[in-house]
Queue: 3 jobs
Job 1
Amino acid sequence: MALEKKKGGVLPPDGGWGWMIVAGCFVVTVCTRAVTRCISIFFVEFQMHFAKDYSGTAWIHSLVDCTTMLCAPLGSLIGNRLSCRIAVILGGFLASIGLVLSSFATSLEYLYLSLGILTGLGFALCYTPAIAMVGVYFCERKALAYGIAMSGSGIGTFILAPVVQLLIEHYSWRGALLILGGFVSNLCVCGALLRPIILKEEEACPLPVDSECGYDGKPSEVNGMLTGKVAGIKSEADGNVRCLQSMQEYSFLLMPDFLVLAGSFFLLATGCSLPFVYLVPYALDVGVSHHNAAFLMSILGVIDIIGNISFGWLTDRRFLKKYRNICYLLAVGMEGLCCLFIPLLNTFVLLIPFSVLYGYFDGAYVALIPVVTSDVVGTTYLSSALGVVYFLHAVPYLVSPPIGGWLVDTTGTYTATFFLSGFALISSSLLLFVAFIIRHCQRKQKNCLSEDPKLESCEGKQVDYYNSKNKDLTIIIPATS
């Protein structure tokens, strides 16, 4: 399977088998992100069975999220070196085994390893390669394709939240985890759909040293074996080539625009997981029934779908295509504002608008994360860039739910936890907004210089500017990216 790549570069199909890639990525997001969200439904059962508090139980959810994001570069590496198909099939097997083993848990520490780390590792190997494949198959309709693919998270949450609650009631939490393990094994089927292609811009360059020849271009063999000197040269050359390839794969890390985007993603990850972890416990705390609390997650999931697809379709329109970053920061900022109003919402009826608004803006920005990343780094580096982007989510996903649980245990309310989420999301949006303003001012200043009749702009070259006082004055205008 690793060698099953088509010869010759092609243009992104923008359809055809690409829709099967979208379908596969859709199911991957259902089996990874939706299942991760629904783990919070098990919290009350875990607390009762193991007699633990909120902060101890929250480590399970945070470990799943953290491991999924921390190992995202590993998924990118396997997808780049072998194939996305192998990465997803292997990840599906590990995730399924982790959930099945979790059904036999005897302590929270056991769940930390089986459900938190093993299942999270499986999700990591599936998530990034599947998302990257959508970006390979689509160009003109990329945002719409990602909107449909990422809507699996919302649809999965809508369907799985009440189903998981029913499974817990009928088969206990152990039986529910066992059934989820069988369901997640469908990731292996999704992996089989990921047919690899090579784009024209990704066609491999020739190696600097022929792997079978010496310096003179002629094979150096003794009885069919490479001589020791040439074998050493070959090994050293192969090592240099691999090192050079690795450096090229991550050269985007030096781009200022990507660094700003990475900082925004880090702040985003600090706040975005808390509402999914604590919405159901908060609803139960204010007197909402178990079924209605699970229904809030279902509402959030349905509106999440609308946000995925509608924002994807809108940002593919010609008049919004160049403003995708602005659409992204608006979605994140509005999501943060929703969290600041949570202290006013203490009934099921009042929590419904929160689920609607939060779900819509969550779906909007989730669909745009790979799109804005692709706009910054390009399709060639998308897989590696997504690995780094999701890696940045790891530490916030690990520490923010336990911090939120500690705030609940300390204050006795969920207000501080939701405020932490809201301020983190708003800060993420403000960082991109400030960067956008700075770029706009720089662009305006550059345009003013180019319009000056006394100063002819010639990037990267010397421009002689003679004035009445000093005719030898030379100004050097450096090239800008």
Job 2
Amino acid sequence: MDRLLYTAMSGARQSMEQQAVVSHNLANASTTGFRAQLQAMRAVPVEGDGRLATRVSVAASTPGSDFSPGAITRTGRTLDVAIDGSGFLAVQAADGSEAYTRQGDLQVDGNGLLMSMGRPVIGEGGPIQVPLEAEVFIGADGTLSGIGMGQDPDSLAEMGRLKLVDPGEAGLLRGADGLFRAPPDAAGNSAPLPASDAVTVVSGALEGSNVNPVESMVAMIDVARRYELQTKMISTADESAQRANSLLSLNG
């Protein structure tokens, strides 16, 4: 009977964690450049004193992210950029390390720093800074050009270049802050990726989330029903154990 309890109990718990992943994806169905988290279930042996080979648990895991591109929508805003094809935009994370995102709705803060999601955008020489009140244009290769306030169009000057990277087959790992980083080396450190000239951007456009709301809703219903089934199995096992105890008491 305890085999059933082990399986149902661990399955119910991991279904709740799987539901959290599905809910997170659905909540970001309209987030610019969001990459859906993948989720999977797997059987794992029960560890600890007194373990038995017949007892197994279920573990939910997020083996990676879905890197398929999202739909590109034209906005006409000069500071909006969408990555064309594969590639990522480099930004500075809260700890000062280099991280990567595809969220391209850029802004200029009060100090003239080019920001994405409140994080400085990294260029060829570090965070990019542009003159305040300047009109900025972004080329297909990530080059920033601008005209200062009150200047004529002939004064168009280059102000920097976005660092665009292509992780290739090595891939990227999602961090707790929602940003992506290169896989760590043997020492556990993630080295910055080199800039790639092959990555291009579409100016005046944004890439949407690659989450399919319909599929996410179906997955949410499926996980909820699976959780209900597992809790019902726990109740059935409890009822069966009580009946067995009653029979033993009568025969005792």
Job 3
Amino acid sequence: MMKYNSTQDKSKAVLSAQAIAQGISQDGGLFVPESFPQISEKELKSMLSMSYQDRAKLIMGKYLTDFTADEIADCVDSAYTVEKFGSENPAPIATVEFNGEELNLLELWHGPTCAFKDMALQILPHFLTKSLQKVGGGKDAVILVATSGDTGKAALEGFKDVEHTKIIVFYPMNGVSAMQKHQMNTQEGDNVYVCAIRGNFDDAQTAVKKIFTDPATAAVLNENNMMFSSANSINWGRLLPQIVYYVSAYCDMVNMGKVAFGDKINITVPTGNFGNILAGYYAYEMGLPVKRFICASNSNNVLTDFIRTGVYNKNRDFYTTVSPSMDILVSSNLERLLYCMSGCNDEETKGYMELLKSEGVYTVSTKIKEKLQSMFWGGYADEDATARTIHDLFEQQGYLCDTHTAVAVSVCDAYIRETADKTPVVIASTASPYKFSRAVLSALNKGKMPESEFDMVEQLHEITGADVPKPLASLRGKKARFSDVTDKEDMQGVVFGALGIQ
């Protein structure tokens, strides 16, 4: 049976159902697999002819050893449907040429909320309900979420009206796009609650983690027959599905003739919390042929500096950008990478996290720095570079991308020019451009900006001809259900209030 350890106390070992139901270890550490199951060459070759769904079942079965094959199949087949994602392959590849180089965009935004989070958050509720049946003891799960934009809506949509769950989402009041805010505040479902906070995403994430790990709060929930769980990427059930799409992308690249079987690819990911790129690294640890991970940041370039220097320093200016899902200075999932690269040294990992909490800065060992720089390359795109990339990619190829994908394309372009590395590259394209219509329309510079968000969507469609996703078009005229705002210090009270606990 595959066990999962805490990054801060590896003496703790649980099965996957416990790791998924609990979300985070009680010591504040994150659950990680005790080892990485391998994908043999024979298995990888067999996956070339498989559907996305069958690839998912094979990979997930290696990690969810306390689930039956039928349980895993039920989760996968319920999550990745044509009805939800528009085709049999929920994560297709679009090939474009940018500044003379071929780029392969892994489109992860065809799900019901038009962001890559759907790839994990359509299946996580199925994982969680089965996990609760195994280890929950009859308790209802309270899904507590801090979001920088996309996770919130994807989690709300995934968990709406799921039995024995309640979901509470906090987002930074001025730190998400107008469309993201409208998506969350109009959310349907009897078990959902949404609240803005006065602060940024890091404030929300820190407060949520504190509430999660507070024994007194857990005791109150227990008295009310509830337990916390998470839909953020700190939850193993969020990270596992993301491993699948990198393996699937490699298979599709081979089938498209973009790479010879067994040859390596590069993977570029726009990331703030480090979960999406970490999933790719985990696929590499399983045996996926990857040469280099290109970590793309926006003006909040804490990860770029870390990869280049080995020093993680959150003590810096925070920028609210047009790529809000990356407006993060504390990258939670980096803890998992540090644990892995330190040789599963929980004491060393815990030491880094304690320094981050107390001083806001830590410096990794020479061993970790060398490993990090051998596999990762960090770069960032500021607001001007992001806008220029959206404009140039559309002018050159007629391809419309969102602000986060533009960051990745810009950084990948810089990497290729700096290193002359011609390895075939897959770029994670993480959201529909229509979720960020104001910024995308402004980048195209095609005339006067409309006043309303949906008029911007309409004008963007008229200019580009790019289809407007139905889930976004259907929001026009929909009234908001939620308008609450709170201070970060009061979030625990808001949680109790939303749950009806006095």
